[in-house]
Design brief:
The protein is an alpha/beta fold and about 800 residues long. It contains 23 helices and 39 strands.
Length: about 800
């Protein structure tokens, strides 16, 4: 370790920003009073346009006031506009971007490429942060996104500390890493489960948490007995306070807490803990948390705590599987139940009013709990907290079925009213968090007193006394006097830090003058922070120009792979997931295929077969490309296919730079014409329309983009989850990761049966990732004639791994319309 306290290759140790969630104004106050450097929140609009539409959020009319208040407290405000946006919503989004820019917000978080372009056109000075929903997992992908004007990347939660370190060495962009909160099992931005099963899109802020539902596992057609382990896709929550020093050494610019749907008590507790952890790490000291302090996090909200993927994948420990609900801490073990009481051996403190739940099968309604009515120790009712030993707990009449409580059953504490009260005190009383204010004072007899100040928030002031200072006869001005009287900042947000005094001779300053100077100093600081920054905001809407450009063929796009001009006949492209399927498709006369093969060694055979069959062939990349994986793409180019189906920005940029024609896949989430146009500008020959467009919006998109540059998937099984968590390893192997799993995915097939009995196939993917596909296919074949009339020429059918031979022939027949190829 060098003198800067870093390992060789790490960035210098700069204090990272602590970014806290705010589902409403109260949560924002809780975050500020407990040490947040920045808060992020969404706007309360009918459409939402933020990834937590169910949060209370902030009314747009209150945004300037909130930003002003945050700035007065020395805290930044980031506005989440991080969902996909459809073309007919761009005008509404533009209006919101203008309000955000005018409010003085410090950044806007975006997922949609088109929204990023629009925000840049409206106000180039408004900082853009790429939401984790943008699915950026490598420096290569970030370099492509950088052309959007993005300043900061919110990293995917699936990245390890070592992978973050690798990215830091390859990019100058700011990096923001999650350190606490809920973990999604699917890569953010790549989850279609809620949309597929209930029409509620996670990419539109309406996640129905399909990953938190119970599933049964089917292996090779037989049920796998996992006991009461049924929540197979519900990970532990992330808790990385003990990894803060290591994360600081990677050079991340910010550490982020998830939780815009959580209450202010949760925000206060988690923010305060990570404030201490960061400050201690920067001072080279341990944070000194007690077990009681860390238990508070579990009581407030926890599905179990762990390090997630920060230390690399561990498929055995990421998912507990017995519950997906908040379960708090283990309060103790049941010794017996009867006569209206439950006898418990304590593992944690308990008191009257605590909320508890008894271990049980929640999915089958066998879980019960309630609020503790009384606590008895040796028959005596105790009002105070009991920390150890054996107790008897009573509950409200009728709230517990005592006959269902069994010895050996665990009991969890899920709520502690006393903790809530203590946490509320941190943000409901008089503000306690102060902004440090450094002063430089010049004082000399016969000249005006000059006080120049700079606050830690960046605000500055310069105040002079009304009159020159007189010569002192008895009590000359001293640095101690200045510190005492200028430091009387009581009710203000400031606290005096360093004071440098340059005093010449024996000047005298009346206390009334010092008081006026102090008040003027605070007024200047407040005014400086209250005024939003001067930003150049476009006087006219840029949308018409951006939309017109989207309808114009892009000069920077590659020539369309296996396509001719827009006047050609419609073309069918069939995606195959095995060499056997590929041979069947080629034998049926299809002249454009896509090989999506898990084994890289099979790509050569696929290209050879396509050439022999006189067909064009594209090779599909993995959906995710992480640090160190870009070299695995080069062999695809060496095979000289007709093109590449790029599923992430890193692959798009890589093959574009090699001059290989590229089709951008639907995983890049092009939901509006501005996004399509940007992907074409980045070198894509065609762009596959987002899967979440309904009939009307798909037609509208086809009208809004250049003819011949849109591809539409007309039949496929939606990929509901694309996850770093490998269920093959988790349930079929004694190993914990790809290093020792033994590759059960080569020998077995897995399906997940949902709560209504539908079995969804689980496919192993490159990089030992898994994709769960919807059992029922999604089809838009009836739209083909109308889309052809609008200039769409490229249509795709995607086969499932287990699509039978007879099904292949049925699927690849083009629907009625102008068909060919």
């Amino acid at each position: 370790m060098d003198e800067a306290g870093t390992n060789q290759g790490d960035s210098p140790r700069e204090r990272p920003e602590l970014v806290a969630p705010a589902g409403d104004r109260v949560c924002a106050r809780a975050a500020v009073e407990n040490g947040a450097d920045a808060v992020y929140f969404g706007l309360a609009t009918p459409t939402g346009f933020n990834a937590r539409a169910r949060a209370t959020n902030v009314p747009p009319d209150e945004l300037p006031e909130l930003i002003e208040w945050l700035h007065r407290r020395g805290v930044k405000g980031y506005v989440a506009l991080n969902t996909l946006v459809f073309g007919d919503e761009l005008d509404e989004v533009e209006a919101l971007v203008r309000r955000i820019a005018e409010s003085g917000a410090d950044a806007v978080l975006v997922q949609d490429f088109g929204v990023a372009r629009l925000a840049r056109a409206v106000c180039p000075e408004l900082p853009l942060h790429a939401s984790t929903q943008m699915s950026l997992t490598s420096a290569e992908g970030m370099r492509v996104a950088e052309s959007l004007g993005v300043r900061r990347i919110v990293l995917a939660r699936e990245l390890s500390i070592e992978q973050i370190r690798m990215i830091r060495r390859q990019t100058g962009l700011e990096l923001e890493a999650f350190v606490h909160g809920a973990l999604c099992v699917s890569y953010s931005g790549q989850c279609l489960a809620s949309f597929a099963l209930g029409g509620r899109s996670a990419n539109r802020g309406q996640c129905a948490q399909a990953c938190r539902m119970p599933y049964e596992l089917v292996c090779d057609g037989r049920d796998v007995d996992l006991g009461d382990k049924r929540y197979l896709l519900s990970p532990h929550d992330l808790a990385a306070w003990d990894l803060v020093p290591e994360l600081i050494r990677t050079g991340v610019s910010a550490m982020k807490i998830e939780g815009r749907l959580k209450g202010p008590e949760y925000v206060a507790c988690v923010t305060g803990l990570y404030r201490r952890a960061i400050d201690a790490a920067m001072a080279g000291q341990p944070p000194g948390f007690t077990s009681g302090e860390t238990r508070q996090l579990e009581v407030l909200f926890s599905r179990g705590l762990g390090h997630g993927w920060l230390e690399g994948p561990s498929h055995k420990t990421l998912v507990w599987g017995h519950s997906s609900a908040k379960r708090g801490i283990v309060l103790g073990e049941v010794l017996g139940a009867g006569r209206g009481r439950v006898r418990v051996r304590l593992a944690a403190p308990v008191c009257r009013g605590d909320g508890v739940v008894f271990e049980g099968d929640r999915a089958r309604g066998a879980e019960q709990g309630g609020r503790v009515w009384e606590v008895f120790v040796q028959g005596r009712s105790i009002k105070e907290e009991v920390t150890e030993g054996v107790v008897e707990l009573s509950f409200a009449r009728g709230s517990i079925r005592f006959g269902a409580i069994q010895p050996g059953q665990r009991i969890y504490k899920t709520h502690d009213p006393r903790l809530d009260r203590r946490l509320r005190q941190t943000f409901t009383g008089r503000p306690t968090r102060k902004v440090a204010l450094d002063l430089a004072v010049e004082a000399a007899a016969g000249r005006r007193l000059v006080v120049a100040g700079r606050a830690a928030s960046g605000a500055a002031c310069r105040v002079e006394s009304p009159e020159p200072l007189a010569e002192a006869h008895k009590h000359p001005l001293t640095a101690e006097t200045l510190r005492e009287h200028l430091g009387r900042l009581g009710a203000t947000p400031y606290a005096l830090g360093r004071l440098d005094a340059k005093i010449e001779g024996r000047p005298m300053a009346p206390l009334s003058v010092l008081g006026k100077v102090r008040r003027a100093m605070v007024e200047q600081l407040e005014a400086a922070l209250a005024a939003p920054p001067r930003r150049q905001i476009a006087a006219q809407s840029p949308l018409a120009e951006l939309r017109a450009a989207a309808r114009t063929p892009c000069a920077t796009a590659c020539p369309p792979a296996s396509s001719a001009d827009a006047g050609a006949e419609a073309r069918l492209h069939v995606l195959c997931r095995s060499l056997e399927q590929l041979e069947q498709v080629l034998a049926s006369g299809v002249r454009s295929v896509i090989a999506d093969l898990r084994e890289s060694g099979q790509h050569r055979d696929a290209v050879r077969s396509a050439r022999a069959g006189g067909a064009a062939i594209l090779l599909a990349t993995p959906r995710v490309q992480k640090p160190g994986e870009i070299d695995a793409l080069r062999p695809l180019a060496d095979l000289q296919p007709d093109g590449i189906l790029a599923r992430n920005l890193g692959a798009l940029g890589f093959f574009r730079d090699l001059g290989v024609p590229v089709v951008a896949d639907f995983s890049l989430n092009a939901a509006n014409e501005l996004s399509v146009a940007w992907l074409l500008q980045q070198g894509a020959a065609r762009v596959t329309a987002c899967c979440e467009l309904g009939r009307k919006r798909l037609v509208a998109l086809a009208k809004a983009v250049a003819p011949g540059r849109l591809e539409v998937v007309i039949h496929h099984h939606l990929p509901m989850f694309h996850t770093e968590h490998c269920l093959f390893c988790a349930v079929l192997s004694p190993g914990t990761s790809r290093a020792d799993c033994g590759r059960p995915c080569d020998r077995h097939g897995l399906w997940l049966r949902d709560h209504v009995g539908v079995e969804h196939p689980l496919a192993p993917e490159a990089g030992c990732r898994n994709t769960m596909y919807r059992a029922e296919p999604q089809s838009a074949a009836e739209l083909v004639p109308g889309l052809v009339a609008l200039g769409v020429r490229d249509f795709r059918v995607e086969l499932c791994e287990d699509t039978p031979a007879e099904g292949v022939l049925c699927l690849i027949r083009m629907p009625p319309g102008k068909a060919g190829g």
